[in-house]
Write a structure and sequence with these properties.
The complex is a heterodimer of chains A (313) and B (286). Chain A has 313 residues and is mainly α. Helix content of chain A is 67%, strand content 2%. Chain B folds into 2 domains: 44 residues; 214 residues, MetI-like (MetI-like fold, Orthogonal Bundle), CATH 1.10.3720.10. Classes of the chains: A mainly alpha (313), B mainly alpha (286).
Chain lengths: 313, 286
């Protein structure tokens, strides 16, 4: 039997030797991350200084790609669309799940809570592609569920070519998954986070509030919303990061940013003009700008949050 | 006397609660119905032929046309199997790397530990779109275009940051006493990992498997860029191809969607409990 307490203090060589084993254990993880995450990020910046319309002919063009980008009206249009996605996510995308989560925890029976929680998040179990295609069928102008329903109730005037009309396309894409699992607003995550947040509030707080004569409605404002602060800040962060990746659903529903660029987002535009068109330098420049935007936004948010936390303390 | 009063007020409270439950349940049922309707419609539609689809648009129709499923399967089985291969390979890679790295970060002190850890998790803040072009060029240079490796490697890396973070947190939350006891029993690092950390990490691993499989089954953006060969398509990109092929034959189209969804629905049924438990335990915390 060894007695670890009487072990001599390890020499520095032994320490290094032990640490080497640890480094070796971490090596595959670090290597994968360096090669497939850090290297592309650096290389993306380098690539953005080249005009590479085909893989063999690359010309150094300095900041030309960035200059073109600033003047690219589609790129700006894409940003405005992404902003709409963001606004949608932080309003409808939060309000509906919050109301649903509040209602759910107000049920007195645990069994009912479990049942409705499962039913509400069940759409999450479907693959995004299936989700997108089934909803694309909902919107189909001829055989789609929405138009068929509108015709059936005698409201044919409201029937639209939902995804084909520039006026309705963006809104229709945002509504995919309504009401709870909104694909463009984080899927089922907002609902789950809010639900878990509400469930984790200690029962004593609710009891104390009830004893103080706090109504259910007052409780929402005085306790529930403030207690969900952590969840909301996580969701805000995700929505800010999501700004630059909004609209991937567009690619799925084959509107490809159309009609008339009404659903183009920075992401779809990067793919269309930067990769599909083979203009890798331009695509890289766009990626770099999006990175900077995303970093600035989330950095500013964290700074703001920390400042207000310090002030509150 | 007191008992009678209590039970009377209990009854009153009970009926009020029941009324509340009925009202709230009604609203929630409506929300659930709206959310599930498209999938229910597709499920019912998957058993209809074109004539039944026109005649009975909203309601199920008999006879059930099971052949929709066989014709859909004939076309999507390749995508299905490819997604499964990619999903299993990706889960295996990130579970091995994620648990081992999480364990090292959680339980050992060594020079550079913080730096390495932050080097990994800072990537969580880097949106994927940033790397899209250079990653595409790298994968192309490595000759991985039109191979499943292009998906496996990139999905693994993409899921690794979260996994390392999650596993480190989960392993940190295991009580110190257990590790002290293991040390006293003379257990080595690898033994501690296999006998203590892994069994106690099952909920966290469930979360990882669930999110990875869901992620892989859901992913289409990257797959659209790197896979052109129809034989290498996965569910995400294959369905697009399939949808244009079956055209306006809705029965087989819906059957294909249902078949494509099966693994996720099953995984959801099996793992949602773990996933939610992980969520509840605060593995997602800021």
């Amino acid at each position: 039997m060894s007695a670890p307490s009487r072990k001599p203090t390890p020499s520095s060589w032994q320490l290094i030797g032990r640490s080497w084993a640890l480094y070796l254990t971490l090596l595959p993880t670090i290597a994968l991350i360096v090669i497939f995450a850090y290297w592309p990020t650096v290389n993306g910046f380098a690539e953005s200084l080249y005009s590479a319309t085909s893989s063999d002919a690359r010309v150094f063009v300095g900041l030309d790609n960035y200059r073109t980008l600033v003047e690219d009206t589609t790129f700006w249009k894409a940003f405005v669309n992404a902003l709409w996605y963001f606004l949608f996510a932080v309003t409808v995308g939060w309000a509906v799940p919050f109301v649903a989560a509040e209602l759910l925890i107000s049920l007195s029976s645990a069994k009912l809570q479990y049942l409705f929680r499962t039913l509400l998040i069940l759409p999450m179990a479907f693959p995004a592609a299936v989700f997108g295609f089934i909803w694309s069928f909902m919107y189909d102008p001829n055989d789609g569920v929405i138009n068929t329903f509108l015709n059936a109730i005698g409201a044919s005037g409201l029937a639209q070519n939902w995804l084909g009309d520039p006026r309705t396309a963006l809104g229709s894409l945002m509504m995919v998954g309504f009401p709870i699992v909104l694909l463009s607003a984080g899927g089922g995550l907002p609902f789950l986070l809010m639900l878990v947040g509400l469930q984790n509030i200690p029962q004593e707080i609710f009891d104390a509030a009830a004893m103080d004569g706090c109504s259910r409605w007052q409780r929402v404002w005085a306790i529930d919303l403030p207690m969900l602060g952590g969840q909301f800040s996580l969701l805000t962060m995700l929505a800010l990061i999501g700004l630059t990746q909004a609209g991937s659903i567009t690619l799925l529903l084959a509107t490809n940013g159309g009609p008339a660029f009404s659903t183009t987002t920075p992401l779809t535009w990067l793919i269309q003009s930067g990769i599909s068109a083979g203009n890798f330098g331009y695509g890289s420049a766009m990626g770099t700008v999006l990175f900077a935007v995303s970093l600035t936004l989330s950095g500013a948010y964290l700074w703001f949050q920390r400042r207000s936390a310090r002030r509150g303390a | 006397m007191t008992r009678a009063m209590t039970s009377a007020s209990d009854v009153k409270r009970h009926t009020k609660r029941q009324r509340n439950d009925a009202l709230i349940g009604g609203i929630l049922a409506l929300l659930a119905f709206l959310g599930l309707f498209p999938f229910g419609f597709a499920l019912i539609g998957s058993f209809k032929n074109s004539a039944q689809f026109t005649q009975s648009y909203w309601l199920p129709a008999l006879p059930l046309h099971m052949e929709n499923y066989s014709s859909a399967w004939a076309q999507i089985s390749t995508f299905w199997i490819n997604s499964l291969i990619v999903g299993i390979a990706t889960s295996t890679i990130i579970l091995v790397l994620g648990t081992v790295s999480g364990f090292v970060f959680a339980r050992y002190r060594f020079p550079g530990r913080e730096t390495l850890f932050y080097m990994i998790i800072i990537l969580l803040a880097v949106p994927g779109v940033v790397n899209l072009v250079p990653l595409f060029l790298l994968v192309k240079a490595l000759g991985m275009i039109d191979t499943l490796w292009a998906l496996i490697v990139v999905y693994s890396v993409g899921n690794l940051y979260t996994t390392v973070y999650l596993m480190r947190n989960s392993i940190s939350s295991i009580g110190d006493e257990i590790f002290e006891a293991a040390k006293l029993d003379g257990a080595s690092g690898p033994q501690t990992f296999l006998r203590i950390v892994l069994p106690l990490s099952i909920p966290a691993m469930g979360t990882v498997i669930m999110t990875t499989l869901t992620g892989v089954w859901n992913e289409y953006l990257w797959a659209l860029l790197v896979i052109n060969d129809p034989a290498k398509r996965t569910i995400g990109t294959g369905l697009q191809f399939f949808t244009t092929q079956v055209g306006t034959e809705y029965g087989p189209m819906f059957a294909g969607y249902i078949l494509a969804s099966l693994p996720l629905v099953i995984a959801f049924a099996l793992a949602s409990r773990y996933y939610l438990a992980g969520l509840q335990a605060g593995s997602v915390k800021l």
